[in-house]
Amino acid sequence: METRLRRMREQRNRHNENGRRAADSRNSVQEQARELRERIKERMEDQKEVRNRAKIHQAKRDEIQSQMRELITQRRGKRGEGGTKPIVIQLSETIGEIDRIENRIMTDGSLSLSKENAMLKRLKALIAKREELMPIAEEFQVIEIDLGDMEGSIQLLKAEADAQHKAMLEANVEADEIWEEVKPMLEERDFLRAEGDRLHNAFVASREAADKVHSDMKVLLDQVNEIRNEIKAQHEEQERIIREHNQSVRDALKTPDEDEELANSLADQLLEQGSITLGGARKEDRSSSRRLSKAKKKSRRLGTTRGNKS
């Protein structure tokens, strides 16, 4: 089980390492995608600016053509037909409507929330239109038309309209070129986004696999610890049995002078009975044993004396 646990730990570490590599690659790809998005945003802003310039040239062209048609109509002695209003008039009407809406929003307390939101949306559109018309109207204010020379004024307006139309076409071509430049960048952005998602999914899968192995390791580790505790308890029980056995053997081999409990017991017996029997020996045997012991001691002393005299 410990070998299996070690292998699982190595497997978990491999999953974590794969996850770290995937995360590093993902972060690198996402950083590239972020830089690419910034470049795309800049180029799209450039294209928007060029498109707005093209719209301004188109509006100037339309305004000049409107004035030119008005002069042609006047030259023919006809009344003007309905059509697109001149820029100056459009701007004046737009500003007037903006003022009316702003004044009503600030003073009319009976407006419902939905009505107020609709008016705010309309106001936002009018402000955008005003910002678009103002620079055009300012430029048209410097164009002088000599009504005394109507034919010359018409030719002047026609030439100016043609110039504005050409500038509009050139701006649209420039915007299209920017778009052609942006298109491969968009494809690369989509690729990097997909690659980032793939690497992120690989990172998540590696982390989930590592978490799964780690969870299995915890279960196995609990089993290992339980078995270790059982083995430890068995060892402690065996040591206790051996220790108690050794103690019992030592207790059995003790002599009365080593065993205080036995000595006290013999003393109590002596006080009660007046004699003590050890190992089943009788009093006569003990007397004979003492006489024999004295004879031996005397014999040893005689042998020692003879040895000294010689």
Order of helices and strands: HHHHHH
Largest sheet: none
Say how many strands there are: 0
Overall geometry: rod-shaped
- Please give the count of helices: 6
Radius of gyration, in Å, reads 58 Å
Give start-end ranges of low-pLDDT stretches: 279-284, 295-310
Mean pLDDT across all amino acids: 77
Helix/sheet category: mainly alpha
Helix content: over 70%
How many angstroms does the end-to-end distance come to?
A: 83 Å
Description:
The protein contains six helices and no strands. It is mainly alpha-helical and 310 residues long. It has a domain at 31-194. The longest helix has 103 residues, at 150-252.
Features:
310 residues, mainly alpha, 86% helix, 0% strand, rod-shaped, disordered C terminus
Helices and strands in order:
Layout (H helix, E strand, L loop, with lengths): L1 H75 L10 H21 L5 H28 L9 H103 L7 H14 L9 H27 L1
Helix pairs in contact: 1-4, 2-3
Brief summary:
The protein is mostly helical and 310 residues long. The chain contains 6 helices and no strands.
